[in-house]
Protein: tRNA(Met) cytidine acetate ligase
Organism: Lysinibacillus parviboronicapiens
Amino acid sequence: MQAVGIVVEYNPFHNGHAYHLEQAKKIAQADIAIAVMSGSFLQRGEPAMVDKWTRTKMALASGVDIVIELPYVYSTAPATDFAKGAISLLSAICCDSFAFGSEDGSIQPFLNTYRLIEDHRSEYNALIRESLQTGVSYPKSLHYAYEQLTQKFPSTYINLGQPNNILGFHYIESANMLGSGIKPLTIPRIAAGYHDAFQEGASIASATGIRKALATTGTLQSVRDALPNATYEYLHDWHNHFRKFASWETFWPLLQFTIVRHTPSELTRYAEVTEGIEHALVKAAKTSDSFQSFMEKIKSKRYTWTRLQRMLTHIYTGFTKEQLKSFESPSTIRLLGMSSQGQAYLGQRKKDFTLPLISRVAATKDNMLAVDIHAAEIYNLSIEQGTQQEKLPKDFQTPPIRF
């Protein structure tokens, strides 16, 4: 059986994802699709709007055959490590290819870009350092270095100012660094850009646009046209139970408490908290009545919104710099769900996997897996606040979903 891998968050699964999934199977000529999906917290440093199990059901209902979890260590990491974790797992589960959505839509410019930076790595790094010394943020420094190289060595390259192109580049970089034979494929994004606002009645919208529309209107009906029926029903059921979707705004009282209960020096223990920002975090938390107002006080030229959110995620979950340094690569493949086709694939290929496949978490002792379980427990408690009887499934007791 031929398997194509995809890297996803499904926050939530929408019609654009359905198109990407269909095209991924088609261009890869694959029998099944394997999704490596972020768990409770995501790459831009925010909680998933619904839990991993609900998002797994959305994926399986819409045609994904196997869902495995991207560990917290990688799902909340900058693009380089996010990609490394994802491609490591797709390689370990024997995917023949991986397909990613991109603004560019053609694979050759990605390969040209990888070769350009790899062949001129020393010069590239020197240009980044040069830009950083002027006080420019790291992402902007990367962009500056890249622009200098493309002007010096003209060819057809990707626009590294686009978020999906950036991730696509790092997927290809990771596959090469890992020495994996997994083949890269890309699919052009359609209709809605990553940051585009939601247009009422549109059948294709970005997940960001959908979440913002939900936060503004407070009603699922406003975004129904952009969602498959299964997604709509799962979100509707979730909201009926918990009366809210997860976001930093809904978690703000708990995040505020978590920050304020620490001294500034204590905050420096946590991953990505650097360069004196700890003082600003505590000061702003004490005087902010919402997450938005808090972020407006601490955002600066040096700290992007995403970088700050990742810091806050680690503070909230208690994930330390020491823990981060202790992990070098994924240690297991955690199975979240499978279709009958996916189950058949696992039966055929399991002996070839290069990491152990975990379905019974309670019977497994693994430090990286323990971080995922802890993050899920923190997430669940945050959602359950203010509800009388509704409880989310215990992460370490939940078996893979069979669809």
